[in-house]
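Chain X:
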Amino acid sequence: MARDFKRKNKLAVISDLNVTPLIDLAFCLLIIFMITTPVIEQYNRIDLPEQASDSSQPPPEIDDKFITIDAEGSYQWGKDDISMQQLESRLDEIANAQGEQPVIHIRADRKLNYEKVIDVVNMLKERNLTKLSLDTKAS
């Protein structure tokens, strides 16, 4: 009788299925698919149609505005030197103008205090001018 009890216990232990390695495998596959899926999506190769370079349609006119702040903190609108009050009035004109907003590029000297750039960004934000570009030099 003791032998039968031992046999039953051995069978009971053997009959349990250990699913831990299966769970580990499932997580490994999940991680592999999470990593490889974005890479596959980025490299979709498509064959774009070609267009003749002598197009009859003129390219759209770019209406970007440039604000430059030099190392001393003086402002320029395009190539013209302006004061802060003149800058504010030009931004008011753009904000009140009908049509699509232009992209406003802010170009600041690297030695300039960051506060000057934030002042210009705040001026744009107050006037709800949301198309903004902080220009940098490519290295």
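Chain Y:
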Amino acid sequence: MKRPNVLVMMADDHRFDAIAAHGDMTVKTPNMDRLIREGVTFTQNWHTGGYSAAVCIPTRAALHTGTCVYEASLHKDYRDHKPPDVRTIDPDRVTLGQALGKAGYHTYMIGKWHNDHASCNRSFADGAEIFFGGMSDHYAVPTYDYDPHCQYDKSQEHIKDKHSTERFTDAALDFLNHYDGIKPFYLNVAFTSPHDPRQAPKAYQDMYPADKIPLPENYQQQHPFDQGHLTIRDEALADFPRDEAQIKQHISDYYAIISHQDHHMGLILDALEKRGELENTIVVYTADHGLAVGQHGLMGKQNMYEHSVRVPLILRGPGVPRGVSLQQITQTPDLYPTLINLLGIDIPDTVTARDLVPVMAGHDSPHSHVFSLYLDLQRSVRDIRYKLIRYYKQEQQSGTQYPGTDKVQLFDLQNDPWETQDLYGKAGDEQIIESLVDALQKRMNKYDDALKNVPIVF
């Protein structure tokens, strides 16, 4: 019997809660809602962070290798004070595409890769509209056709006067409408939305009048302390201090481009259904990371708050329960071994993430804690309820305006999901802190983290 197809749709900057079925009553996402209604959503899913201000680079490498950020790329030189190579996926790691190709799948890439050319080519046998960059005007994204010789010279770039989401969707529809291979397929569609510039067509912008947009409960005019990158590009997208009307407009634009993407995801699902393949396809929706868009006085993803580290992880299809919402803690790279298990393929030895098939069957999470990091400025750990964030001051950057801060935060995510009440230093939480610190220290020691010898708590 033919194995199920695999369709992975991935967004750029889409935080977990900006989906109607995840509780946001303003944003309209009927197709994402459908996937959640007909499949499984992992509601406490984190990305693993990265040694790059462009967090999407390492988080994508982690997903495609089924490893954590320490293992996925060639960033290891960072500990030797050399420029980190976070873009190049470790060639010793078997990528998801490689594993599926070896198992007899036709592998096809569309959209944003953002890692090195070689890892793309060893992951996919073909593709279209491949974007190796990080961000671009959505109406001028430079893309490539798949080159089997891996010679992606700039002269081969092409730009079309059409929105990136529409271009990537057109390529996916073309593939689905014409693919007649005997092999099952693995189709990866990586959108550049809802990354800025948030250029949704006017019809979608009109869905969200800015003056009707509610501000999030954790909106602040400015972040209360220096987290190390307060003036990075993402943060400079809005004025300092933050203005309520301006933030509402940013949220409006964010929702508009999400709804535009959601519509085109629906077209892909419709095409699958039309060719009779939807029920024999494992459909995945996830994102590389989230985004603040005004929460905590921040705009970007270079932080450890839930709006930035918590991302969607939704599965629908053969072997996946229907209409199930799971609260166990997970991390995005867990998708790799989970898919492999669902397809009945042996998980490569280079994969260190954890299979979530038992979780879908009702078992506890394979993780007692999950972790994320940002450069040598922030480390975070959480269990099912509590999160600890450690901020570091970079003494070698003492001449800069924002060197960071030596600080610890503790949040009770069960009672304070908006992370507005820092519990660190309050009596009664010592055992909670000790447990989180112990887990984080063991993690940092295991991977020879550059900050492993710096005390986590004071």
